[in-house]
Amino acid sequence: MKIISKASFVYASFLLAAASAFYAPELHAQTTSSQAKALLKRTDQSTAFMDSDFAANYSMVQSKPGQGNSNVQAVMYRRDSAQSYTILITAPSKDKGKGYVQFDNSIWFYDPADKQFVFTSSHERFQGSNANNSDLVPQHFSTDYSIEKFSDVMLGKLDCVLFELKASAKNVDYPTVKLWVTKEDGLIRKREDYSLSGQLLRTMAIPSYQKYGSHSVPDKMLIVDNLRGKKIDGKMQYEKTQITVTNVSFAKQSDTVYTKKYVEMMSK
Are 257 and 77 in contact (CB under 8 A)? Predict the structure, then answer.
C-alpha cells in the first residue's frame, strides 16, 4: 500500500485527545429518561438520509505502529431508504476496482482479479482498516440496544449525554457500547465499544461535522483499535484509522448504481 507522511496523524491524535477528557460539572438541566430515549432515537436518525441518496469520497489513512501509514481511497453511494449502498475502491492501485454492494439485506464484495462476488457482513473490517463495514452506514442504537445508564457530561466544551448501552439484538458488532451524544443536535461525538467481559475494544472520535441543510456528515472520524498495538520505546501504541469525508452530494443516483452489474462495470 502507498506509504504517506506521519504528519497526517498529528491532527488525528489531537482529535482523540480532545475527545478523551470530559469534565464532570453539569451546567445545564438534568436529562430525564424520556428525553434520553428521544435523544438516542434522534442520534440514529442523524446517521441516516432517508429523503435522498448520499454520495461522498472517503479517505482512510491507517497507522500501524512500527509499520508506517497506508491509505485507501473509495467512493460511496448510499440509498438509505432502500437499505442499499455501493462502495468502489479507487486507490491504492493494487486494490482499484474492488467494490461492495448491499441490497436485500445482503452485502457482496467484488474482486476483479477473481471476477466474482463473495458474501461478506457488516461486522467485517473494511479493507483491513480499523473501521467495520457497519461504521459507514446508518446506526440503530435505539432499536438494537437498551439504555442501561445515562448521565449528563461535558466532553471538552460539548454538552453531552453519555449513554451506556447493552445489546438487545443478536446481530450487532459489540455487546456493550458507550456513546457520547451532544444534546443540541443528537450527533455522536465519541464512542467506545466493549466485549461482554468489559474489555475496551475500540474507541471512535467524531469531533466535527459538515452541515448540509438538515443533514450532518462527519468531517473526520478517528478509530483506535485498542486490541491491536505494539510497544515502542516502552509506550503502548495502537493501530488507528482516520477517515476523511469529502465531495458530499445528496443528488439522486441511477438505480443501476446499487447493483452488482454497476460494480463490475466500474471495475474495468
Answer: yes
